Amino acid sequence: MTFIDKLSAAWAANDSLLCVGLDPDMARLPAQFQNNPQGIYQFCTEIIDATADLACSFKPQIAYFAALGAEDQLEKICAYAKENYPHIPMILDAKRGDIGATAKQYAREAFDRYGADAVTVNPYMGSDTVEPYMEWSDRGVIILCRTSNAGGSDLQFLKVDGKPLYQHVAKLVAEKWNANGQCALVVGATFPEELAQVRGIVGDMPLLVPGIGAQGGDIEATVRAGRTYNGTGMMINSSRAILYATQQGGEDFAAAARRVAQETRDAINAHRA
Ligand SMILES: O=C(O)c1cc(=O)[nH]c(=O)n1[C@@H]1O[C@H](COP(=O)(O)O)[C@@H](O)[C@H]1O
């Protein structure tokens, strides 16, 4: 089954466009997971269990693991999710970008070592640097287009032939790089107008849309701008607002994460039609 097929099935099975981000920041984990050699694994798998019926995907951000030398725990988390929730796609957020020979190793890392269904990739170095990921034809390649951060405008908004650079990226991916139908694009929820522009360029290509929750993106505007004709087409990511929901309420962290994930999924669904 390809990444896109798996994602479509997860949208339908869980009636959800919500991507639950796994960004385990040691300083914010509940006390029982700190100074615990398997604490990150235990925290993330409890979050996965609490939200798996509400999510269309999970997205671990590799920096949160690598910074602590906890890649072995990330491997175990990916294996756990695959074993227990094989129908939910796992997106490795690594934002890789390098020459082909090196990209080949990054692709092995994402797809072989972690068994990810898809990986985030930076397009800045061009077509030969994304080809090694495309060779894994059943996996997804999610390319940065219009990122959620303010500084994304520094380069992505530069006018090239009268159009902002991010629109050229969207067109290039839709018309050339997506020959095998395995591509998706990253577009921030913090920029709904640009999200609508990208949707207009790429047809029904899936979009990974971070920026709701902690970054303050508006859910209604995001869904209206990015949905496809059938009310799908997006993996709308929220990480910190779900992972650290206890700080907002004082409940058990997994129950609080579930509550926020459910509220977020339902808020998204309210605007899909
Ligand atoms: O590729 C991403 O996932 C990504 C792209 C982008 O433009 N902005 C963005 O915030 N992200 C990631 O999405 C997550 C957002 O986390 P929260 O702001 O806590 O919901 C982080 O893991 C970011 O690294």
UniProtKB/TrEMBL annotation:
The keyword Lyase applies. Residues 17-260 form the Orotidine 5'-phosphate decarboxylase domain. GO terms for biological process: 'de novo' pyrimidine nucleobase biosynthetic process; 'de novo' UMP biosynthetic process. Keywords: Decarboxylase, Lyase, Pyrimidine biosynthesis. Pathway: Pyrimidine metabolism; UMP biosynthesis via de novo pathway; UMP from orotate: step 2/2. It comes from the Bacteria. One of its GO terms (molecular function) is orotidine-5'-phosphate decarboxylase activity. The active site is at 95 (proton donor). It catalyses: orotidine 5'-phosphate + H(+) = UMP + CO2. Its EC number is 4.1.1.23. SUPFAM superfamilies: Ribulose-phoshate binding barrel. Belongs to the OMP decarboxylase family. Type 2 subfamily. NCBIfam families: pyrF_sub2 (TIGR02127). This is Orotidine 5'-phosphate decarboxylase. It comes from Massilia eburnea.
